[in-house]
Each structure stands twice: as structure tokens, then as C-alpha cells.
Design brief:
- By secondary structure, the protein is mostly beta strands.
- It is about 10% helix and about 30% strand.
- It has one helix spanning about 1-20, and strands spanning about 40, 50-55, 60-65, 70-75, 90-100, 100-110, 110-115, 130-135, 160, 175.
- Strand 5 and strand 6 (about 100-110) form a beta hairpin.
- It is globular and about 50 Å long.
- It starts with a helix and ends with a strand.
Length: about 180
């Protein structure tokens, strides 16, 4: 049991860093941290990073998730707000081209999730705004190994995620901001 706690702690620490640096579309727009000068990248560039869709009270919402194993994904706690943790209406989105148009579809449904025990929606995007989501076996087309230590001051990072460009209103698309 101690080994599992240690691994989960490393995953949570990595997620906290990621979510302190970038937030999905539901985040507070007054946040001081923004990704600027990002660029759209190919879907195969970072296969562990996926777009997820949450169906909450008839309102759709999208967020970014990162697979850290074949079945475990890390995402923001607010991305699963109001969902049932034992039967979440949370899906990894797939994309296909039909008649020259990109179409999104629910590729795989989550099995369950567990939010950080100190998560509180009233805190907004905080160090506790993190969730581990479980998917069926072999759901991930790739996964990222969590960082073994915190980045150093001045170290370059690559942040990859889905979101909307607030300035131009362009929805969706995987963006890389280095």
C-alpha cells in the first residue's frame, strides 16, 4: 500500500505543476498565468494528452487529460465537478474526418475518478484542483511518465492542452506553448 501511495503522490505532484501553469476553459479568466504564442500541433505529437468531454446536467464541457498509465489519467478536479465518481459521464474524445469535416465522437468512457481530498470548487484553480480518472484496460494510445522532480528556475517546459483561443474565439485544438 505504501508504494501505491508514493506513486499516486508523484502523479498528483506532477498534475499540480501542470495545472498551476495552464488551465482549461472552465478556469477563472482573471488568472495571472496564460499560455501565449502557442501553436496548434498534430494529434500524434503527444499521444498521452487527450481531449475529454464531460456531460454535466445537459451542459457539455471539455478539458485536457493526460494518461499516466494505460488506464489512469490526470485532469483538473473542476473538470469532473457534479459528476458521479462511480459512474462518470466523462469520455475521451476521438476525431475523424467525414465529408471533409472533422467530427468528434466519444471514444471511451471513464470508469471512475478520485479527486484530491482537499479539492474545493470555491478555491478555483488551486494546487488541490486535481483528479485521477480510471478508464478501461488499454484505453490510452500513449502515456507520460510523471516527473521525478520539480523543474528548476529558468528550465524550459512544454505545456500541451486543449482549449479555446479567447482572443479569436477559435474553439478546440491541441495547442503547444513552450
Amino acid at each position: 500500500m505504501k508504494r501505491r501511495t508514493f506513486v499516486a503522490g508523484k502523479i498528483v505532484a506532477t498534475g499540480i505543476l501542470a495545472f498551476m501553469l495552464v488551465a482549461c476553459g472552465a478556469a477563472n479568466e482573471n488568472s495571472e498565468t496564460k499560455v501565449t504564442n502557442g501553436k496548434v500541433i498534430g494529434d500524434s505529437s503527444y499521444p498521452s494528452v487527450v481531449q475529454i468531454y464531460a456531460a454535466v446536467e445537459g451542459k457539455p464541457g471539455t478539458c485536457t487529460g493526460t494518461f499516466v498509465s494505460k488506464t489512469k489519467m490526470i485532469t483538473a478536479g473542476h473538470c469532473v465537478e457534479s459528476l458521479d465518481s462511480s459512474d462518470p459521464k466523462l469520455y475521451v474524445l476521438g476525431k475523424r474526418v467525414e465529408n471533409g469535416e472533422e467530427k468528434y465522437f466519444a471514444k471511451v468512457k471513464a470508469v471512475s475518478f478520485k479527486r484530491h481530498p482537499k479539492y474545493d470548487i470555491s478555491l478555483g484553480v488551486s494546487r488541490y484542483d486535481v483528479t485521477i480518472v480510471t478508464f478501461p484496460a488499454d484505453s490510452a494510445s500513449g502515456f507520460s511518465t510523471p516527473a521525478s522532480k520539480s523543474p528548476s528556475v529558468g528550465q524550459k517546459l512544454t505545456i500541451v492542452g486543449y482549449g479555446a483561443n479567447v482572443l479569436t474565439g477559435v474553439p478546440g485544438g491541441r495547442v503547444n506553448g513552450s
